[in-house]
Amino acid sequence: MDDYRGPFDPAFDFGRLSRRALAVLAREYQMAAHLQDRAGIPQVLARFGAQAMQDVAIDEWMGASPVYTQRIQRALRFSGDDVATIFKGIQFDVGAPHGFLDFRFRVDGERSGEFWLPYCGALMDVEPMGEEFVVGMCHHIEDPTFDATAVATNPRAQVRPIHRPPRLPADRTPHCHWRVRIEPDATPVEEIPLTGKVRQSRLARVALPTTAPVADTAGRGDYAGPFDPDLELEDLSHGTLAIVAQEFCVQGHLLVRAFMRTIAERWGDAAAAEIAAQQWIGIAGVAAERLVAALGIGGDDLDAVAKLLQLHPAFHPRAYVALGVERLPDEVRCTVGDCDALAEGDPYSWFALPEPQQRRALDAMVRVVNPRARVNACTVPGARLAWSVRIDPAAQPTPEPPEVALTKLSKGSSFRFVSRRPAVTLPRAPA
Q1: Which of 182, 217, 251 is the last residue of a domain?
Q2: Mean pLDDT for each consecutive 10-residue tract of the chain (431 residues)?
Q3: Burial of 93 (0-12, 13-18, 19+ CB in 10 A)
Q4: Beta carbons within 10 angstroms of residue 122's beta carbon
């Protein structure tokens, strides 16, 4: 099917979606993992200031991106230590959601290439905040995190700006332009200690199903061939899209782990849990709104609630989060059984948060379908976590949580994807 407008399907999985619809869903998962930073990082800023916010953002991305870059290399069966391999990884990085961060690439050789962004949604978010925040993101944060992304492929890769914001003149395009070179004599970039801690999690090692949900021959089954600078998700086969969609969700959860750990190392586990709860609530509502629109989940009834819970990226991949959604006559039951997400043995996960905070995240999701929907914890045999969702016509509508409103300050919350073709051609930069 091309969307989820029909009745609730208790056996729903990615195989029920058409290849086109699965590409749409995978892009939404990529965007959700990207936008969760817009829900979490402002909470750090509000408590600890701009320098702390930058330091946490750097550690978060440096802690997670080498881990998930190597996962996507294995999943799509591409490898190497050249610039083209680095660029392939960026194309499947939630830090670069397609179109919102409109990366364009040119490979000049095994050791040299360039990328540029005709449009950078992240820049559009921070420019109104002033030059200090632009420099913080485009200089202080991007310098180490770009190198950390490349280190997963080649520790001697160097990502250096040709030009970057602040923009002079104010409407300069492309928004930024970077050169990537592999310098054999350069001092290799080393992973930070946090990366090793993230790599040891069950999440980092979770094995995803490799069997295609449907038998298809259309589209690319992997990315082992040449680098395609204009690649779109629609170019992939149905089975490959299913893998990529799940990997985007893994990337989001890995970023949560890195985010919570680096906060905990600075200010303790209680601060990490408090901020992560606000992060989950914020992205829970924004991702729900985007999914309802993108997958055509219409109506305000319990069927729509059940469909949304099935699709929400917080509960994927199923190999990590053992979610169950049951549609009963007057309620929807959402359960999580024994699974790796509940067996990490540490507090650095949304699923390790106190139940009331988890429930607030679900409240933020279901109110998108119906603001009179109410979530309550319940007990279900065999379930570790369980909630009941009912719609009370007499209840007052639940207002939008402030955490969701904060996340919506990002232009990504309302961004609509368009085809990346035809590619923009940029003249070669001076040597």
Answers
A1: 251
A2: 89 90 96 96 96 96 96 95 96 94 95 95 91 89 85 91 91 93 90 96 93 67 94 94 97 98 98 98 98 94 97 97 96 97 97 95 97 96 96 95 96 88 48 39
A3: buried
A4: 24
* CA 121 to each of CA 97, 174, 218, 370: distance values in angstroms, whole numbers, following the listed order: 9, 12, 32, 30
Beta strand segments in 350-404, E: 373-377, 385-391
- What does the buried/exposed string (b/e) look like for 351-388 if buried means 16 or more CB atoms within 10 Å of the residue's CB? bbbeeebbbbbbbbbbbbbbbbbbbeeeebeebebbbb
Q: How many domains does the chain have?
A: 2
Tokens, residue 308:
């949304």
Tokens of 302: 């319990």
3-state secondary structure of 208: coil
CA distances from 367 to 109, 294, 396 (A): 51, 17, 11
Closest CA to 272 of 358, 353, 356, 361: 353
The two tokens of residue 217 are 């021959």
Cβ contacts of residue 139 below 8 Å, gap of 6+?
A: 164
Q: Are residues 406 and 293 in the same domain?
A: yes
CA angle 258, 260, 265 (to 5 degrees): 95
Residue type, 177: H
One domain, residues 111 and 245? yes
Tokens read off for 253: 């959860």
Range of the domain at 139: 17-251
Q: Are residues 238 and 277 in the same domain?
A: no
Q: To which residue do tokens 């109104």 refer? A: 128
Instruction: Write down the H helix ranges in 268-401.
Output: 269-294, 302-311, 355-366
Residue 111 near residue 150, CB atoms below 8 Å: no
Three-state SS for 376?
strand
Given a contact cutoff of 8 angstroms between Cβ atoms, the answer to whether 103 and 90 are in contact is yes
Cα angle 255-15-20, degrees, rounded to a multiple of 5: 80
374 contacts 389 by C-beta, under 8 angstroms: yes
Question: Can you give the pTM of this predicted structure?
Answer: 0.94
Quote the DSSP letter at residue 3. S
Instruction: Give the tokens for residue 26.
Output: 């995978």
Cα 212 to Cα 116: distance, rounded to the nearest angstrom: 34
